[in-house]
Amino acid sequence: MDAFVWDQRFVTGETGVDDEHRELVRLINSLIGLQSKYVAAETVQAALDQLIAYAALHFAHEEALMESGGCDPRFVARHATVHRGFAEQVGKLSALPVGSVSLENLVNYLTAWLAQHILGMDQSMARQIAAIRRGVPAAEAYASESEQAADPATSSMLDAMAALYRIISERNDALGELNRNLEAKVVERTEALRESNRKLLESEHKRASEARRHMQHYLSQIIDGDPVPTLVIDASHRITHWNKACAAISGLPSETMVGTWNQWQAFYPESRPIMADLIVDGSLEERFNTYYHNIFRRSKTVPDAFEAESFFPHLGDGGRWLFFTAAPIRDADGKVVGAIETLQDVSERHQAEAQLLQYQGQLEAQVAERTGALEQANRQLAREHEELSELLRKVEAAQQQVLQSEKMAAIGQLAAGVAHEINNPVGFVNSNLGTLKGYTAHLLELVDAYESGQPEAIARARQKADLEFLREDLPALISESQDGLDRVTRIVQDLKDFSRVDQAERQHADLNAALSSTLNVVRNELKYKADVIVELGELPAVDCVPAQLNQVFMNLLVNAAQAIPEHGKIFVRSGVDREHVWFEVEDTGTGMPPEVRQRIFEPFFTTKPVGKGTGLGLSISYDIVVKRHHGRLDVASEPGRGTRFRIWLPVTPPDQNSSASP
């Protein structure tokens, strides 16, 4: 039996450190074994050298672990100092002659120092590294260790070993002279240490057992209070937990299940492993397939866990569908020490799926029935659609006729004004031509007289022709006639510019010029109703269809004149605002109430007497400005204060492919 007994109390939780501690204990026990044998001094020295070399390697590993684990530099330095002190003391002891007394002192020193170091500084190191891995700062972990109260039993043991360490260290230099006297004291101290060690182990075993019982009770409360049916088995397949939810779903109380190996009774008519049993056995997937027939799969959320879904006819009334998951339980070394299995009753979902399939069949039958009805309805709808299409074509034809009527009415109104404007110059040009005809006859008679050579005839012809008067009147007649013809030419050109019959596509146009042409064309409609005040600003060329906008200008100008009961004023303005140009027609007419203003852009809405208008002028204008030119047509009006229309047009419209049809 080993003199220096290893116990789980010395475990730090750092696997590499614990393995090396075990090796040091083994080497010390090997050295202790040499005390009772007659062996050569070289054998003892070789065993001692092996122990010292391994201790140095272990100290290097511990210091590297503290560095990589991020321990507080103060603790690392203090720990390294202790290591160096141990090496110095062991070096001094190993330099003494090898004898029974010195060897016993040496092994007692090694035992005391190692036990003290493991229970004290190495356990503290392991706790600090664990805290740092959880995110605790190194300084805080070190401070917490410094402030932490030591366990009374462990403290007494450490104090005893520390005292022994100090005593042995202080007497190392005099060990050669006091070898025989010290032997008895070392034996006494060793016995006391062994007794203290025994008591400490008993205390630690008791405390560990109490902690284990408390943890098991706490875990049992957690599992038993979980609403998810849960069972736990240990490495021997014995049931350790069977919570209330599991008892409720299986009908087997925990009192009859815990401590037994009867977990199969809850699910199967005869003994066989459940999924948790296969987990404990470390079964391969082939064995899972033997019992679960390809209905199992690995869990996507829990490592090394399996799950499956199956029907259990023996559960409840008529059986239950269960979804179950089993996962391994491992100890600190990763060894499987049990398994936990959870159950979920999914019977309602399966019933819902069955009902869904039934509803699906019923729905498919209804769909087939309704499909026939829909096909018949579709044929009826097709006939009605054809009838509606025909009706729509008729309505569109009628609408085109109305629009054409509106255009013809506007043209007729325009033609009357243009005819009046043309008739005036044509009238005096015609009168002048009559006068010129008479003057030409007199001049031709004078030419004939000169050709006859008869003085009397020449004198009569000159007197009749009145050449002095002709010299004054002919230039005036020709100039007046030329002015009249120029005026007719301008009117025709303005009318051509207004209609733009040769330019019906989009182009970059000077809309101030277009507005001026429209003003000239409708002058006869305006001059008897209002004074026209024109205030045009400088505008960039606008991408538009000028003929369409001329129609808008004409509608707004004619409407403005018609809205003035007596002689008033019409203001025509234009301007530019960033990426838009604007045009404004404002009159001093009667204005409009809100209910009329809200409807003026509706097709066929008019306030004029029957036969005086179709109600399409502003509707067409709105369509041209807003839909065809991506602009805006605003109106402001108050009864008795006149009306103002403002047209907003983008200089370059966003849709370059918009329709240009009138």
From TrEMBL:
Broadest EC class assigned to this enzyme: transferase
Reactions the enzyme catalyzes: ATP + protein L-histidine = ADP + protein N-phospho-L-histidine
Occurrences of domain PAC (ranges): 306-358
Assigned EC number: 2.7.13.3
Keywords: Coiled coil, Iron, Metal-binding, Phosphoprotein
Molecular functions per Gene Ontology: metal ion binding; phosphorelay sensor kinase activity
Signal peptide: none
Coiled-coil region(s): 349-408
Organism domain of life: Bacteria
Location of the Histidine kinase domain: 417-653
Residue span(s) of domain PAS: 215-287
Similarity comment text for this entry: Belongs to the hemerythrin family.
NCBIfam families attached to this UniProt entry: hemeryth_dom, sensory_box
Name the UniProt record assigns to this protein: histidine kinase
